[in-house]
Amino acid sequence: MSQRQNSVTFSTSLLPLVSVLLFCASLSSAAAQSCGAHGVAVQVLGSGGPELADKRASSSYLVWENGQARVLIDAGGGSALRFGESGAQMSQLDVLLFTHFHVDHSGDFPTLIFSSWFGDRKRPLPIYGPPGNDFMPSTTEFVSDFFGDKHGAYRYLSELLVPGEEGSYKMEPHNVIADATPVPAFRSGNLSTSAVRVIHGAVPALAWRIEIAGKDIVFSGDTNGEGEGLVRLAMNADLFVAHNAVPEGATGIERRLHMPPSVIGQIAADAKVKNLVLSHRMLRTLGKEDQTQSEIRKRYAGPLAFANDLDCFPVK
Ligand SMILES: [Zn+2]
Asked: In this predicted model, what pLDDT tens digit does every residue of 40-67 receive, in sequence order?
């Protein structure tokens, strides 16, 4: 099959030129092969938000290690198609992590699960995400809302969830109760994950840190950037993926839900992250990259890139 590999350009300032050149060289050498064939890489499956006119899949990321797609973070609409285009297989995943259950982060979940029905997955699939409240289901509720045997919308696939039903592997959903101090979640071999609660209006939401083969990758998820948790979680991360959902100067509900570029830049600087990727790009931020970059540059000087679907970021 053909692999789409979009070229990735980082802009840099104030960094020693040599480290910039090394980082760019690693990106271009990786572009000739599938993402993460050697070492650790993050592939952006969905770089957009809820809109469709942006022609981007909604939020979703893969963490690759040595040719294995080991962690999936979120599964917004369109991400299942991108998952197939990436060459990943559901049987490879060690864990699926959710930041929250807005549609643009979770809409393709049943599509991915049903696709695995036709694959060769045998081992359980752990699924970790936030707890619920009056507005949103918990992770365990979310999975059973689709696949529970009594009331699940797709209860014809309940053998993927219900203990005792035979015929397939099982999903194993977990609710992660976190606050501003990182709490450990899934762990297996050279892979461990931890989360903090982040503020995203009234929606229970997590940011995730993934440590894999000695590399540290942090995903902000959707958040307005309030509180200390995200800086703690992202401290010294090799790669920080932050969501660029609103432009500088946003007010009202947009600002209560999302962090503007100045806040992203401050968090990246405070946490001393080594590389910054901006994703969850929306019509209100697309075309404003220069302004976004200059706001971030007032605070953070490290390599910075704007994500597109299927971009591959090797983590050196
Ligand atoms: Zn979102």
From this structure: 999 999 999 999 999 999 999 999 999 9
